[in-house]
Design the sequence.
């Protein structure tokens, strides 16, 4: 590792937000309780729903969608390049 490189464990949320000059995001499937936490107490979410959340690289949620394709569309609308995370 070069002297100026940081290990991923050393990256702060601010470092992550700057990745790709703020244009990177990621999509992951979320649980119903996480969607309700993000949307607030007034949100009604079916227990059978499969939901995907688009996040900025620093972990800030951007949108919640009912399909991965819709989440990718949201990334496009927000001018974010969605990266695959495992």
Sequence:
């Amino acid at each position: 590792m070069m002297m100026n490189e940081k290990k991923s464990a050393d990256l702060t949320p601010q470092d992550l937000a700057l990745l790709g000059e703020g244009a990177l995001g990621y999509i992951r499937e979320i649980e119903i309780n996480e969607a309700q936490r993000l949307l607030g107490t007034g949100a009604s979410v079916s227990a059978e729903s499969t939901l995907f959340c688009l996040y900025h690289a620093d972990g800030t949620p951007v949108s919640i969608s009912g399909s991965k394709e819709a989440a990718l569309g949201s990334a496009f609308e927000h001018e974010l390049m969605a990266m695959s995370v495992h």
Remarks:
- The first helix runs from residue 13 to 18.
- The first strand starts at residue 24 and ends at 30.
- The CA atoms of residues 14 and 58 lie 7 Å apart.
